[in-house]
Specification:
11 strands, single chain, Transferase(Phosphotransferase), domain 1, alpha+beta, about 900 residues, elongated, six-stranded antiparallel beta sheet, Phosphorylase Kinase, domain 1, three-stranded antiparallel beta sheet
């Protein structure tokens, strides 16, 4: 074995996994490690070796020894940290030591728990330790161990001091006291309210289990150990990373086990497992079963608690099973909602989890419409329910007006984050159902002023929430109105230039303008939001979102270089702050792929959209719309790279999937048909291709009207007709495409491309000249005169002028091309002789024989290698033949 010391970070991870594995039920440690060490078999083997040694040794590492530093020793051998005399060690965690300590003041004395960072850990652990201390400092609730203060030792290690809870694990306490069902429910309800208090302060615990809930001798449950808790508003923290401290698998929500973003719903799930165990005496799943269910390999029904104890049948079964649903959207929207239902049970009232409740009908509505083109039905319904339930619960807990206002604000932010984290599998066309999301939104919109008139910051948050709700439904005029009000309110309330709430609402308003094709307004607002985020931090989630949105706007405007720069910066930030499988990375990868594809960099574009599809499939599933759409972009890039078979096969699969999800008028189906039809056409099946393109065009025209997708079908049908030699049909389709692009854009590469194709197809000399001219002018304005597509359009414009004998107009263009062709394509390109051939022909037409001869001499010298093409040779010979006698060159 090597004598090289193990890396401290690596050892910390090994030790933490060992501490987690050793408390697993008999026979389940290896399954736990299989999940926890995915992709790192050496790590798994290292921990298994420690477990084996532990089993063979006499209590080795069972109770880790705690070394007291010499710097802590005071007179007489006593050990001190600041004013706290250390009595005995209580335990060792992944990064800290915990000691029982005694504090004595002028008129008081008490035992406390002191946690200090362990010696030898890197600065990153100090940051995490400080973060944990900050979280605890803001929690003040009788059900949470109280924070007493903190400081640093003489050698600079931070510590903090907590209330010492002398108690017993909640499950053991209930068993020892022989509590009945009702008493257990009452006890657990207090735990739920403590968790809700943490949520209202933007803290998610992430490791709720019996070990972390002690009941005092007075019967008060106390929540402990916020070591892996997260702050919902901390955008610099990686909110899903648990590499140095893992949640306990048997209590962890499926999204935690899958490495997906966690939210308050994750704590609700853990509460459900705890309640299940407290009532029935056993957990619903072992750690291995929980892992399998999260991965989708175990889809069997969840056994109700009454399977073990028949007395639990009925409302308690319903409550528990709702809390531990696999889909976060189907759980209680908050810990307060769970506590509220437990109160209803205790008071003999109907519980809200029953099928007759509004929440149940709303959830069933979303399930019936899982394939909608807008992904927000679950978002909005959960948002409304969560907000109302949380505010009502807080009102019962906190009666002071000032405290209530703060709690309302915080609770709203919690619910917004919760629902944003959930996303949605989507819902179908919402019309025709008695309970529509739009109706719910409209009803709540009418109540904003009356409900929140005395809490302006909460009102501003609700205005933002309503704007986002309408935006996700596609009701953009309403969304814009609410977003404008939110921005106005945020600005009025803000007293600093770097206010993240202002940045968030301004960015949302900008995106709404983008979706309405108001690109100038969108760019201005998103840049304003971006400037605020840059002032806040250089690597925040908000900054990455603003950059991602700006890249989208710039792409649509055709400013591809700046769009690429913004997209790459967004990707760099997201790779730094999110795990590799986070959906934010997938979204930016997809967008970057589109930008690079538009620039002709199709190999890198394909790599990005493949990454996007892979991540989305892992996180959202293979049938989620975002996953399918990323695969649609893969089909487009395969086509650009000439892999028509693969593109067509993928397009066919995606068209079938989108039609199954959303029906025959689904807008994403139209996007799939675009890629499918284009590939089929290139495979030599024109009739099938035209049928697919016509169908997609009909959907786009009906659903979107004037839109770039609608125009793209016209463009592609023109290309298909051109392949078939149907020139008149082709030019007619392209004219329609040009007209539609004009309605959509002023200056845009897509309009320039359509004009170029119109000029290429047209037999009308005037139309050819005007089409190439406008195409070139747009591209020069957008990209500069040396950009390849701008050079190409300018060259054909100049040649069209020659064909119409407009020599004086053509000559200066060819003189400019002498420089720009060299810059764009290099000296060996086939275009290299063309500026001189064009100048020669123009000079002949203008009667400048001497200049024509010089230009032809230059052209002849360049017609070699790749530039020695039949077209260039023919042009050279044709111009030579037009020279007067004696002006021609002899054959060389």
């Amino acid at each position: 074995m090597s004598g090289r010391p193990e890396d401290p970070d690596r050892w910390a991870l090994v030790e933490e996994l060992f501490n987690q594995a050793i408390v697993q039920p008999p026979g389940e440690a290896e399954a736990f490690l299989e999940q926890a060490c995915q992709g790192d078999p050496a790590l798994k083997d290292r921990v298994l070796a420690l477990l084996k040694a532990d089993a063979e040794a006499d209590g080795f590492l069972e109770t880790p020894a705690v070394r007291l530093d010499e710097t802590m020793a005071g007179e007489g051998g006593a050990s001190w940290i600041g004013p706290y005399r250390l009595v005995r060690p209580l335990g060792v965690g992944g990064m800290g030591e915990v000691h029982l300590a005694f504090e004595e003041g002028p008129d008081f004395e008490r035992y406390v728990a002191v946690k200090i960072i362990r010696e030898g850990f890197d600065p990153g652990f100090s940051d995490r330790f400080a973060r944990e201390r900050a979280i605890l400092a803001q929690l003040e609730h009788p059900g949470i161990a109280r924070f007493h203060g903190g400081g640093a030792t003489e050698d600079g290690r931070p510590y903090y001091v907590m209330e010492y809870v002398e108690g017993e694990r909640i499950d053991r306490y209930a068993d020892r006291k022989r509590l009945g069902i009702r008493q257990r429910v009452e006890l657990f309800r207090e735990v739920s309210l403590a968790v809700q208090h943490a949520h209202a302060n933007l803290v998610v615990h992430r490791d709720l289990k019996p070990d972390n809930i002690l009941v005092t001798n007075e019967g008060v449950p106390k929540l402990l150990d916020f070591g892996i808790a997260k702050l919902l508003t901390d955008e610099q923290a990686d909110l899903t990373r648990t590499s140095t401290r893992l949640a306990t698998p048997a209590y962890a929500a499926p999204e935690q086990l899958l490495g997906e973003p966690v939210s308050t719903a994750s704590d609700v799930y853990a509460l459900g497992v705890l309640l299940y165990e407290l009532l029935s005496g056993q957990r619903p799943f072992s750690a291995a079963q929980a892992t399998a269910r999260a991965a989708g390999s175990d889809t069997g029904p969840t056994p109700p608690p009454s399977a073990s104890k028949r007395d639990l049948k009925g409302d308690l079964d319903t409550i528990v099973l709702k809390a531990i649903r696999t889909d976060p959207r189907e759980r209680y929207v908050s810990a307060a909602a769970l506590a509220d239902d437990l109160t209803r049970y205790l008071e003999g009232r109907p519980v809200l989890a029953r099928p007759t409740s509004f929440g149940y009908r709303a959830r069933k509505f979303v399930q019936r419409h899982r394939a909608a083109s807008f992904a927000s039905a679950a978002f909005i319904l959960t948002l409304i329910a969560a907000t109302v339930l949380t505010l009502n619960q807080n009102a019962r807990i906190q009666q002071q007006a000032d405290r209530l206002a703060v709690e309302r604000d915080r609770a709203l932010e919690v619910q917004g984050f919760l629902l944003e984290s959930f996303g949605s599998a989507g819902g179908d066309d919402l019309a025709g159902d008695s309970l529509t999301v739009r109706q719910v939104l409209d009803a709540r919109a009418d109540q904003v002023e009356s409900l929140y008139s005395d809490v302006p910051r909460t009102r501003a948050e609700m205005l933002h929430v309503l704007a986002e709700g309408y935006q996700r439904l596609g009701v953009l005029e309403e969304a814009q109105s609410w977003a404008e009000r939110a921005v106005e309110e945020r600005r009025r309330l803000s007293d600093r230039p770097d206010d993240p709430d202002v940045a968030r609402s301004v960015g949302l308003l900008g995106w709404i303008h983008y979706e309405q094709n108001r690109l100038d307004q969108a760019e201005s607002l998103i840049r304003e939001s971006l400037a605020v985020w840059r002032a806040i931090a250089s690597d925040s989630a908000g900054l990455s979102r603003a950059l991602n949105d700006l890249a989208g706007v710039l792409t649509t405007q055709g400013q591809l270089e700046e769009a690429e720069a913004a997209g790459r910066e967004a990707m760099a930030i997201r790779r730094a702050i999110y795990p590799a499988t986070h959906s934010a990375i997938a979204i930016t990868a997809n967008n970057l792929g589109n930008i690079l594809g538009s620039q002709g960099n199709h190999e890198e574009a394909l790599a990005f959209v493949q990454e996007s599809a892979r991540v989305l499939e892992e996180t959202l599933g293979p049938r989620h719309r975002r996953t399918l759409f990323a695969r649609r972009n893969m089909a487009v890039e395969y086509a650009w790279l000439g892999d028509w078979e693969r593109s067509a096969e993928l397009g066919r699969e995606l068209a079938a999937a989108f039609e199954e999800l959303g029906g025959p008028k689904d807008i994403d189906l139209a996007w799939a048909l675009q890629a499918y039809g284009s590939a089929v056409g290139r495979l030599g099946r024109p009739e099938e291709a035209d049928s697919l393109l016509l169908r997609g065009y009909g959907i786009a025209l009906e659903r979107l009207g004037d839109h770039e997708l609608t125009a793209s079908f016209l463009f592609q049908r023109a290309a298909l007709f051109r392949q078939q030699g149907k020139r008149l049909d082709a030019v007619e389709q392209m004219r329609e495409a040009v007209a539609l692009y004009r309605r959509l854009y002023d200056d845009h590469p897509r309009l320039a491309d359509a004009l170029f194709q119109q000029g290429s197809l047209s037999a009308d000399a005037r139309e050819r000249i005007e089409s190439f001219k406008e195409s070139a002018e747009i591209l020069v304005r957008l990209r500069g005169e040396e950009e390849p597509s701008a050079v190409r359009s300018t060259l054909l414009w100049a040649r069209a002028l020659l064909a119409s004998s407009r020599y004086a107009d053509a000559l200066p263009l060819f003189e400019t091309l002498e420089r720009t062709v060299q810059e764009a394509f290099g000296a060996d390109h086939a275009y290299s002789p063309t500026p001189f051939l064009g100048q020669a022909e123009a000079h002949v037409g203008l009667g400048n024989q001497e200049r024509a001869v010089r230009a032809l001499s230059e052209a002849r010298g360049r017609i070699s290698g790749s530039a020695d093409t039949p077209g260039n040779r023919t042009w050279l010979e044709r111009v030579e033949e037009t020279l007067p006698a004696g002006g021609r060159f002899p054959d060389s």
